[in-house]
């Protein structure tokens, strides 16, 4: 009789252990489904992404090809000093963490432009983002930042976010003058910022259906829910129906001026140009799965 009770108790424990494993697996599967449902729409909105990790240290010009949403590699228009350096940028604020890895781009020049093209888009809203840092104290510059345009050498057809004539982050669109519109955020030295820009057909040029006429800037966002931008400028961008290029541009009279950029993204939604939380969640999923297997091995 005692042996029979022992067998029954052992069977009950095994059934209980099996049920626990099934519940654990079900929870993990639900976790994966939630991640997939969140990440897939965001990834669909991403047009192009550049992290510079595959490039050797040295000149950025001619690096890259038709990959990751880009239609060509980096091409220098004028100037010389856009270099890949072995130092990535890192940003963390609230729900957003961006690890720029081991590479970024450093610009040191009096006047220089480099661009990369992506598939032409005429979406009503186009977002672009990048990490920004100023390793050298002080600014003697009229223009430092990232641009969107319909050509590789924009002088009148572009929207820009970055630093214009004042020490604060600013926006500028087409013929808006070097001053653009400034935010209240003064750029510090050796501090990494996360900038998100949006160009749209929501401005006041009188023909909103056909022309990009507004640029907006978010500085150091902490959530996938953007809220209102820190600064907005309305003016005709001078672009017809498509935007095709991302551009780094620096126009300064100070030969010792430097700035770094990393993790460039172009997309059609705010979430698309921010590294999705799904990346971190997938790492957590892997850790949970490993722990589950380890417990199962010990139990077996």
Task: Describe this protein's structure.
The protein is globular. α1 packs antiparallel against α2 (278-299). The chain has 300 residues and is of the alpha+beta class. Residues 27-41 and 278-285 have low confidence and may be disordered. The chain folds into 2 domains: 2-38 and 283-299, no CATH class; 49-274, Jelly Rolls. Helix content is 22%, strand content 38%. It is built from 2 helices and 18 strands. Strands 1, 2, 4, 7, 9, 14, 15, 16 and 18 form a 9-stranded antiparallel β-sheet that branches. A 7-stranded antiparallel β-sheet has the order 3-8-17-10-11-12-13, with no helix packed on it. The chain has a two-stranded antiparallel ribbon with strand order 5-6. The protein has helices spanning 2-45, 278-299; strands spanning 46-50, 58-59, 75-78, 82-85, 90-93, 96-99, 104-108, 111-121, 125-133, 141-149, 158-163, 168-173, 181-186, 193-200, 214-219, 231-234, 243-252, 258-267. The two termini are 27 Å apart.
Report mean pLDDT, rounded to a whole number. 79
Low-confidence stretches: 27-41, 278-285
Look at the structure and give the CATH class of the largest domain. Mainly Beta
| Largest beta-sheet characterization | 9 strands, antiparallel
Total of helices: 2
Range of helix content = 10-25%
């Amino acid at each position: 009789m005692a042996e029979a009770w022992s067998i029954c108790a052992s069977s009950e424990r095994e059934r209980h252990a099996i049920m626990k494993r099934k519940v654990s697996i079900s929870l993990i599967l639900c976790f994966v489904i939630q991640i997939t449902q969140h990440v897939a729409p965001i990834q669909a909105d991403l047009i192009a992404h550049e992290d510079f990790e595959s490039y050797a240290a040295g000149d950025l010009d001619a690096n890259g090809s038709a990959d990751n949403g880009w239609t060509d590699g980096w091409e220098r228009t004028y100037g010389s000093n856009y270099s890949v350096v072995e130092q990535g940028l890192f940003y963390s604020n609230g729900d957003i963490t961006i690890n720029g890895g081991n590479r970024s781009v450093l610009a040191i020049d009096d006047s220089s432009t480099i661009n990369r093209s992506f598939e032409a888009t005429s979406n009503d809203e186009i977002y672009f983002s990048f990490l920004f840092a100023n390793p050298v104290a002080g600014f003697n510059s009229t223009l430092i930042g990232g641009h969107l345009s319909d050509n590789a050498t924009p002088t009148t057809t572009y929207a820009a976010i970055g630093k214009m004539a004042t020490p604060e982050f600013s926006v500028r669109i087409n013929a808006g003058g070097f001053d653009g519109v400034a935010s209240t955020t003064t750029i510090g030295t050796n501090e990494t910022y996360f900038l998100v820009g949006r160009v749209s057909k929501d401005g006041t040029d009188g023909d909103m259906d056909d022309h990009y006429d507004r640029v907006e800037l978010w500085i150091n966002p902490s959530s996938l829910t953007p809220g209102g931008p820190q600064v907005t400028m309305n003016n005709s961008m001078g672009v017809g129906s498509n935007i095709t290029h991302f551009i780094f541009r620096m126009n300064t009279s100070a030969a010792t001026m430097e700035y770094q950029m990393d993790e460039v993204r172009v997309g059609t939604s705010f979430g698309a140009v921010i590294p999705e939380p799904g990346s971190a969640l997938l790492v957590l999923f892997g850790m949970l799965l490993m722990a589950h297997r380890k417990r199962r091995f010990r139990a077996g």
